[in-house]
């Protein structure tokens, strides 16, 4: 079962299934940052009141706004 990355609770491990609209500039930016389909990542923290998410993947931390994370489909590991 897939869900949006923005809806995943903190301290969970997920696997990326898809990254939203093909060919979009934002999708290419995510791919260049290492967010590729099939990669597993940890959701470390979620800021309150709709703030950003802190992710850990490929040995580094990445923060994404919730509206950016909304377009990323993941499944729990």
Please describe what this structure looks like.
Strands 1-6-2-3-4-5 form a six-stranded antiparallel β-sheet. The longest helix has 8 residues, at 25-32. 16% of the residues lie in helices and 39% in strands. It has one domain (3-76): Roll (SH3 type barrels). With 77 residues, the protein is of the alpha+beta class. A hairpin with a 6-residue loop joins strand 3 (40-46) and strand 4. The mean pLDDT is 93.
In short:
It contains 2 helices and 6 strands, in the order ββαβββαβ.
Topology diagram in text:
Blueprint: E1 3-4, E2 12-18, H1 25-32, E3 40-46, E4 53-57, E5 60-64, H2 66-69, E6 73-76
Antiparallel strand pairs: 1-6, 2-3, 2-6, 3-4, 4-5
Kindly provide the radius of gyration, computed on alpha-carbon positions and rounded to a whole number of angstroms.
Answer: 11 Å
**Number of distinct beta strands:** 6
- What is the total number of structural domains? 1
Strand order of the largest sheet: 1-6-2-3-4-5
Task: Give the CA-CA distance, first to last residue.
Answer: 11 Å
Overall helicity: 10-25%
Structural category: alpha+beta
Q: In terms of quaternary structure, what is this?
A: single chain
Helix segment tally: 2
CATH T-level fold name: SH3 type barrels
CATH architecture: Roll
Strand proportion, as a percent range, falls in: 35-45%
Q: How would a textbook summarize the main sheet?
A: 6 strands, antiparallel
Descriptive tags:
39% strand, 16% helix, SH3 type barrels, globular, 6 strands, six-stranded antiparallel β-sheet, 77 residues, alpha+beta
């Amino acid at each position: 079962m897939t869900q949006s990355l923005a809806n995943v609770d903190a301290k969970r491990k997920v696997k990326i299934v898809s990254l939203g609209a093909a060919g979009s500039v934002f999708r290419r930016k995510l791919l260049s940052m290492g967010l590729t389909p099939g990669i597993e990542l940890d959701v470390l923290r979620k800021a309150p009141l709709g703030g950003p998410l802190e992710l850990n993947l490929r040995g580094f931390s990445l923060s994404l706004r919730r509206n950016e994370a909304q377009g990323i489909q993941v499944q729990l590991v």
